[in-house]
Amino acid sequence: MTLTVTPAGLAAELGTPGLVVLDGSVFQRPAPDLSTMLQASARPAFAQARIPGSVHLDALDWLWDRARPYRFALPSPEVAAAAFAAHGVGEDSRVVLYDRVGGNWAARTFWTLRWLGFDAVRVLEGGFAAWQGAGLPVEAGPPAPPRPAARPLAPRPRTAAIADRADVLAALGDPAVLVVNALSSEQHAGTGGLSYHRPGRIAGSRNLPATRLADATLPPAGIAALAAEAGIAPGHRVIAYCGGGIAASNLAFNLLRAGWAELAVYDGSLDEWGRDPSLPMETGAG
């Protein structure tokens, strides 16, 4: 199965048995003083306009373990699988994901399903903006409650798809592994934008901003060209990170589209790494 679908392709599939369309949007913005990232549910926007029959899976409620100390930490595989099942995703489902925020959250939802071992999933090219731009039908009003899956999703975790701080520390001394920052070039250099506890980047990491990845519309050759520009060579294992693992999921998803196989998202990202002064960070060009 391909990893993306066009708006026209999805429109032709709407209403077919087994199809589940999920809106994974979360709204985020930096605080005015750039001290933290603020987030808000996209549920009101979903009620105002959505792809017909789609379901909103709000990560703020379902896919964030708030008992863990860093932002957007994944819950256990069992809890995550149960959340998807409650929103209609089961063993017999085919899933299409979209968001209304440029692709990061659709990719985060994709990567969570990949971590759970579920592969029948695609991302809508261009997200909700492309759907609307194509003049395709839009539904409004209070959405119906999601219908739980008849055969709930059973987690079969790909543990290698998620990295922790120990994995990143080991990678910094391993020439076969690249640690790649999906934040902006200014954040990578520590010269601007929101910093996560300390300015700059994980020492030795490279930079490919997720904002350059064009909401799943960039062809694989274009992704590979951006990767080459950032010094990300085929054959390397890549651990992607950002502030809280969301933009990093977009980077990992797109590298997967371009042919990279050994990929992981550092779940804690800088929200964990930056808190610990013993963990190496650096600023400046690089």
Tell me what you see in this structure.
The chain has 286 residues and is an alpha/beta fold. It folds into 2 domains: 4-157, Oxidized Rhodanese, domain 1; 160-282, Rhodanese-like domain (Oxidized Rhodanese, domain 1), CATH 3.40.250.10. Helix content is 30%, strand content 17%. It has 11 helices and 14 strands. It has helices at 7-13, 43-48, 59-62, 77-86, 104-115, 127-133, 165-171, 185-189, 220-229, 246-257, 269-273, and strands spanning 4-5, 19-23, 26-30, 37-41, 55-56, 94-98, 121-124, 162-163, 177-181, 201-202, 206-207, 237-241, 263-266, 281-282. The strands form 4 sheets. Strands 1-7-6-2-5 form a 5-stranded parallel sheet. The chain has a 5-stranded parallel sheet with strand order 8-13-12-9-11. A two-stranded antiparallel sheet has the order 3-4. A hairpin with a 6-residue loop joins strand 3 and strand 4. Helix 5 (104-115) crosses helix 10. The radius of gyration is 18 Å and the shape is globular.
